[in-house]
Amino acid sequence: MKADALRGHLDALLLAVLDGEPRHGYAIIEALQERSGGSLALPTGTVYPALRRLERAGYVESAWSTVGGRERRTYRLTAAGRKVLADERSAWQEFTATIGAVLLPPPATA
Fold first, then answer.
1. What would the mean pLDDT of 91-99 be, rounded to a whole number?
2. CA–CA distance, 28 with 85 (Å, rounded to integer)
3. Residue 76 confidence (pLDDT)
4. The model's pTM
5. What is the DSSP string of 61-88?
6. Sign of the dihedral through C-alpha 100, 103, 104, 106
């Protein structure tokens, strides 16, 4: 998938993979790739700056933790992040319904 196609959606994707459990940065990248069936293979240079931006906005918070014997920064959603994610999901559903109504062929009439 082209990086341009993600423009405007990266933050929502990151919040979505943090919904339910905290993850360290590499686990976030792996979750994006797994949940997208391999279509989203984002580089760390894209993901980490976005995580820092989300943290500054108060949507995620991070703490150092030990994962597999290694120190890693683990990110989790805040209450504000959960609210933003709910809003993003709602907006996405509306967007896809609207675009689908135009792009998809009309139902066949009998």
1. 93
2. 16
3. 96
4. 0.86
5. EEEEEEETTEEEEEEEE-HHHHHHHHHH
6. positive
